[in-house]
Amino acid sequence: MAAPLLVLDKLEKAYTRGLVNKQVTFRVQADLSFGESAIVGMMGPNGAGKTTLFEMMTGSNVPTAGRVLCCGKDIHRVKYRERDRLAIHYHQSYQVRHFSRRKPSFLLESAGLEYPMVHLFDEPQFNTQDGYIGFMLDFFRKLRGEGRLVFICLHPTAKYHLDLLKEVCERFVFVAGGEAKAAPGFGALKEDARFRAYLGDLMAVA
User: Fold this and answer.
1) The CATH number of the domain where 83 resides is what?
2) DSSP 8-state code for residue 78
3) Per the domain annotation, does 133 fall within a domain?
4) Which residues of the chain have pLDDT under 70?
C-alpha cells in the first residue's frame, strides 16, 4: 500500500524568548494526513503560522517537535538540494529555498523522486484580467489530475477570493490559535466561530 502523500505527524514549531525563564512567543501545531491527491485551501489570520507550516512541510524550517512525511520520507532527513523533489513552496510566485543545515548533505538520504508530489502556493496573486484566473485554476487541477497534492494559501479580501476557493478546493485547513484544523468542505468551516470572526464582513457573502 502506497504511503500517504503528506503526513504532519504531531508537528510543532515554537519560538521562545529569554535564556533562563523561556517564554513561548509563538506556536503552531498540526497533526494532519493527506492520503491522496487533492486541492486544499488554507486560510487563517495574519501571523497564525500558515507560512511557517509551509516552510516546515518543505524542509526549510526545522520543527520543534514532530515530523513531516512526504511520500513516506521524513523531509528533514532528505538531502537539502533534493527536498523540492518532494514538496515545493511558492511564496508569491517565488520559491523559498533557505535551509537550516544541521547535518552535512552526504549524511542525508535521497528524495527518490524527480518531480515534487506536494505543491504549496503561498498567497498566489490572482490577476482578474486576461483570463489569468482560469489559467491558474486549470494549472491547479492539472497538478491534481497528475496525482499531486496542491495547497492554496489565500487570505480572502474580496468575495471572488472565496468563490475561487469554494470552486477549486476539495478540502480546507484553518490555522488559528496556534493550531491547524482540517475541514472536509467550506460548509464545515463556517461552523467554526473563529472562522466566522476571521472572515468578518465577508461572512455575509460566504
Assistant:
1) 3.40.50.300
2) B
3) yes
4) 1, 92-102, 106, 130
**Looking at the chain, how many residues does it have?**
206
The continuous run of DSSP H or E covering 104 comes out as none
Mean pLDDT of all residues in the chain? Answer: 90
Q: Is residue 19 part of a domain?
A: yes
The residue behind cell 484553518 is 174
Which residue shows C-alpha cell 476557493? Answer: 165
Q: Which of 196, 205, 161, 176 is nearest to 41 (CA)?
A: 161
Burial class (CB in 10 A: 0-12, 13-18, 19+), 193: exposed
How many domains, the chain?
Answer: 1
C-alpha cell at 135: 489559467
In 3-state terms, what secondary structure has residue 132?
Answer: helix
For residue 140, give Cα distances in angstroms to 71, 121, 173, 180.
19, 10, 17, 22
42: its cell numbers:
488554507
Q: What is the predicted pLDDT for the residue at 114?
A: 84
> Does a structural domain hold residue 35?
yes
How far apart CA 86 and CA 71 sit, in angstroms, is 8
Q: Is residue 32 part of a domain?
A: yes
What one-letter code names the amino acid at 164?
Answer: L
Q: Which domain holds residue 189?
A: 6-93+107-205
pLDDT in tens, 42-95: 999 999 999 999 999 999 999 999 999 999 999 999 999 999 999 999 986 455
Question: Residue 40's CB: how many other CB atoms inside 10 A?
Answer: 22
